Amino acid sequence: MKRVFEFVDNVTSTGKPLLLGFPDTGLAGSIAVSYMVEQLRPEEKGYVDSAELPPIVPVRRGYPKELIRIYESSNFLTILSELPIPPMLIRDFSEALVDWVVDKKLGWVGCLTGVAEPRRLEIDTPKVFILSSELKRAEELAKFLDAEVFQEGFITGVHAEILRQGLRRDVEVNILLAQAHLNYPDPGAAAQLLTRLPKLVNEHVDVKPLLESEENIRIQLRDLMRRTAEAMVQKSREMELPPVYR
């Protein structure tokens, strides 16, 4: 069956982990991956194509870019998306992604994202939670990364479907969730995800500039946040969960 999404790349390495951060709660994962690419300058190795993507061409430093780009460094691969995956296409995208992971023989998938925290304004340092396709692995990572195992609740959106496909295909998928604002960009949450990078993939980025430019980032990403909010209405259910689920 022909998929809606096609991975066009020249990735040849095997065994490396894949880090993902699609626009989601507080844009935490999206900001983290964008900043990581900016700081580490991994090599651009391809893109994800689909006739269903909108006719938009992002321009970065004078260069036209693909909407969903694949990067590779010496220690990991990452996919940077300039827009949220439309809800009706999440299933197809996730299946195509896991097919690609299996075909490329990648090590494991790490999803960087946020979890809505209504008291976020009162929190100086957001907590990071771990959810994995294997509970034992989640417990190991939580201890190793100074995080907590995500115990109860719901995960929605593209990262949830990637996890589901990983479970069905026996592909290791780990989700790192930082407490984040639901309705506007949260560089502070992204910074907490990035502080785990050295132990996660043996890479380090200085998050101080990210935190210092927090307000500018929020202004720059207002339109992406609006698009993301429209594409993830179901995320608002996290706000309605009783405290035991957080």
List the defining traits of the structure above.
246 residues, alpha/beta, Rossmann fold, two-stranded antiparallel sheet, 10 helices, globular
CATH domain topology: Rossmann fold
Secondary structure tally: strands: 11
Strand order of the largest sheet: 1-3-6-7-2-8-11-9-10
- The low-confidence parts are 234-246
> What is the number of independent domains?
1
Largest sheet: 9 strands, mixed
Morphology:
globular
* CATH domain class: Alpha Beta
Share of β-strand residues: 15-25%
Give the rounded overall mean pLDDT: 87
- Please give the CATH architecture: 3-Layer(aba) Sandwich
- What is the element string, with H for helices and E for strands? EEHEEEEEHEEHEHEHHHHHH
Helix content: 25-40%
Distance between the termini: 39 Å
By DSSP (H or I, 4+ residues per run), the number of helices equals 10
Task: Describe this structure as you would to a colleague.
The protein is an alpha/beta fold and 246 residues long. It has a single domain (19-245), classed as Rossmann fold. It contains ten helices and eleven strands. It has helices spanning 28-40, 90-104, 135-144, 158-169, 187-194, 197-201, 208-212, 214-220, 222-231, 237-240, and strands spanning 6-9, 18-20, 43-49, 59-60, 63-64, 68-72, 77-81, 109-116, 128-132, 148-149, 173-180. It is globular, with a radius of gyration of 17 Å. The termini are far apart. The model is unreliable at 234-246 (pLDDT under 50).
